[in-house]
Amino acid sequence: PMPTLAVVGATGAVGAVMCDLLSSRRNVWGEIRVVASARSAGRKVQCRGEELTVQALRPEVFDGVDVAMFDVPDEISAEWAPVAVSRGAVAVDNSGAFRMDRDVPLVVPEINPEQVRNRPKGIIANANCTTLAMIVAVAPLHREYGLRELVLASYQAVSGAGQVGVDTLHDQLAKIAGDRVLGSRPGNVRQAVGDDLGPFPAPLALNVVPWAGSLKEAGWSSEELKVRNESRKILGLPDLKVSATCVRVPVVTGHSVAVHAVFGTEVDAEGAREALRNAPGVILVDDPAAGEFPMPIDAVGTDPSWVGRLRRSMDDPRALDLFVTGDNLRKGAALNTAQIAELLAAELASR
Ligand code: 2RA
After folding, report:
1. Residue 255 annotated in active site
2. In terms of domains, do 92 and 221 share one?
3. 158 and 297 part of one domain
4. Domain check: are 121 and 19 in the same one?
5. 125: Cα separation from own chain's centroid
6. Same domain, residue pair 53 and 111
7. What value does the mean pLDDT take over residues 66-89?
8. Are residues 224 and 88 in the same domain?
9. Per residue in 238-276, pLDDT tens?
10. Who contacts 79 (Cβ-Cβ below 8 Å, separation ≥6)?
11. Quick one: 120 and 153 in the same domain?
12. Is the ipTM of this complex over 0.90?
């Protein structure tokens, strides 16, 4: 029999993309159960051409489930992933609750697929969307040259903050449309947008906001620490130097990262391009003369990390500069989770 899958958080921004993906990827699942909070129970969701009824999150919903995916906030995952495991499922968690737990592997199938089998808690974690977009492109360069340091700035889309982030940006754009004075005087965008900033600390329309997540020690944001800690864990480089500045931009979907990567050996741009051309999950889009760069408007709705603007540093023969864009809801969330779940389905099938 084909394994049974539960999708927890099926009605959220990532859950909706997950249902799309499950409808378009090679089908490895028997029954699919869609699960959400009691508030969403009874709603209908389209998946694999079937209309599925959303079930409320409760322990019994995991009975008979082989793999349970969680696309829910940290505290819901922290409570419910162990419940799913206790009912016999393997949990694949897209929240931040377990990523840095020593007994939970942090898996990116293009990079460390073997880690799925190393799951003493029955839980496998999916990385943060910003880490994922970048790491798929950085890993092949690490294999080639030996990574020592990452200095990066992100350009993160509003859907990283969920559907409420998308609604907030579109509401703000509607409020400012047509007023050609906005953006030319201090404060006038703030006035036009009003007090409702949604999940963001400042207006996103006509602006960039150098902040994502919550305040942590010494002025770092939670998002910046995630990129550092998760990159180290995924690459198996506990001492990797990472300096990240995470920035929110008025883009609906598609996180981008400008990366300065320092390696242990000298690099050459053509060799790096060749490594990226051969890397799984990467598409090289690097023809500035033709106006071809990785950009969210092109990467949205696609699977790979788009990489371009690749240059060898002018001042350090061991460093590369590059720009990466990936769909934060797909590779950054639902797709990576689906790929991990498919590795588990293959493992179950081989038993
Ligand atoms: C964001 N990385 O973009 C977060 C979501 N997980 O807000």
Report:
1. yes
2. no
3. yes
4. yes
5. 12
6. yes
7. 98
8. no
9. 999 999 999 999 999 999 999 999 999 999 999 999 999
10. none
11. no
12. yes
| Ligand 1 centroid, distance to 190 Cα (angstroms) | 23
pLDDT of 38 reads: 96
- The model's pLDDT over 334-347, given as tens digits with 9 standing for 90+, comes to 999 999 999 999 99
From 19, 129, 142, 246, the catalytic residue: 129
Identify which of 135, 230, 327, 328 to mutate to test ligand 1's pocket (most ligand atoms within 8 A of the CB): 328
Residues 101 and 154 in one domain: no
Q: What is the pLDDT of residues 307-334, one digit of tens each?
A: 999 999 999 999 999 999 999 999 999 9
Check which CATH number belongs to the domain holding 140 and give it: 3.30.360.10
The conformational region for residue 234 under phi > 0 = left, psi -120 to 50 = alpha, else beta, is: alpha
Q: Which of 19, 47, 142, 255 is catalytic?
A: 255
Q: Whose CA is nearest to atom 5 of ligand 1?
A: 160
142 carries an active-site annotation: no
Largest CA distance in the chain: 66
The CA distance from 55 to 32, in Å, is: 11
Domain that holds residue 77: 5-126+333-349
**Cα gap 313→250, rounded to integer Å:** 29
Total count of domains within the chain:
2
